Amino acid sequence: MTTDAFTVVPAVDLRDGEVVQLVQGERGTDRRYGDPVEAAERWLDQGATTLHLVDLDGAFEGERINADAVERIVETVPETVTVQLGGGIRTVDDAVELLDLGIDRVILGTAAVEDPDIVAAISERRPDSVVVSLDAKDGEVVVEGWTEGTGLAPAEAAQRYADLGATGILFTNVDVEGKLEGVRTEPVADLVDAVSIPVIASGGVATIDDVLALREAGAASVVVGSALYEGEFTLEAALAALDAED
């Protein structure tokens, strides 16, 4: 994973075979946006170079329920586009199976917290393939679909996973996730300072200014969901704004 080209990464969150967005990860807050392959194709047409897939059923239930939808997206995406996937990945074999399917990077959340050595085990078999997801509420890393606290601070956890071979950290600020009320850059900047591997920011993006602020905070890229699906701004406009500032 490189930090050279900061970009906007569209989220394709899957539940029951459809694209959804949740507010602060709460079940029952689903906003549905149709077929996942159509969503992926739309973002590719607008210039996406990376897609961020999340199996929300997998995150909640611990099983990759949306496997068919994931496979359809992978079959659609050209090799020049990076695909990363999280949700329901609990074992080394789960991860390797997905990487063999064509996923470029697997994202581990609960599994990495419960068994940090899984990061090293997957990295040994498939180098540069593991991103660890650190979701934080009130400054504490949470797991199991954002429902259980761990007592870990994000910076402390990130350092551990960097040492174990993680190629990046996906940091989601659940306090602002899905609310379209703006980002908080301080936690991102603190995490960037704590580790030498790239930090992917997620949560709260409502405007192109939020995107630019996260780049200024040192993030390697930013995952955007609700703002794109709700038409707050277009992916094309965000990418153009990044180019204009280079």
Question: Can you walk through the features of this model?
Answer:
This protein is an alpha/beta fold. Helices cover 38% and strands 23% of the residues. The protein contains eleven helices and twelve strands. It has helices at 36-45, 56-61, 67-76, 92-101, 110-114, 117-125, 154-163, 185-194, 208-216, 226-229, 235-245, and strands spanning 8-15, 18-21, 31-32, 50-55, 82-86, 105-108, 130-137, 140-143, 148-149, 168-173, 199-202, 221-224. The protein has an eight-stranded parallel barrel with strand order 1-4-5-6-7-10-11-12, surrounded by eight helices. It is globular, with a radius of gyration of 16 Å.
Secondary-structure class: alpha/beta
Give the spatial strand order of the biggest sheet: 1-4-5-6-7-10-11-12
Q: Give the rounded overall mean pLDDT.
A: 89
The CATH class turns out to be Alpha Beta
How many H/I helical runs? Answer: 11
How many angstroms does the end-to-end distance come to? Answer: 20 Å
What's the SSE blueprint?
Elements: E1 8-15, E2 18-21, E3 31-32, H1 36-45, E4 50-55, H2 56-61, H3 67-76, E5 82-86, H4 92-101, E6 105-108, H5 110-114, H6 117-125, E7 130-137, E8 140-143, E9 148-149, H7 154-163, E10 168-173, H8 185-194, E11 199-202, H9 208-216, E12 221-224, H10 226-229, H11 235-245
Parallel strand pairs: 1-4, 1-12, 4-5, 5-6, 6-7, 7-10, 10-11, 11-12
Antiparallel strand pairs: 1-2, 2-3, 7-8, 8-9
Helix pairs in contact: 1-3
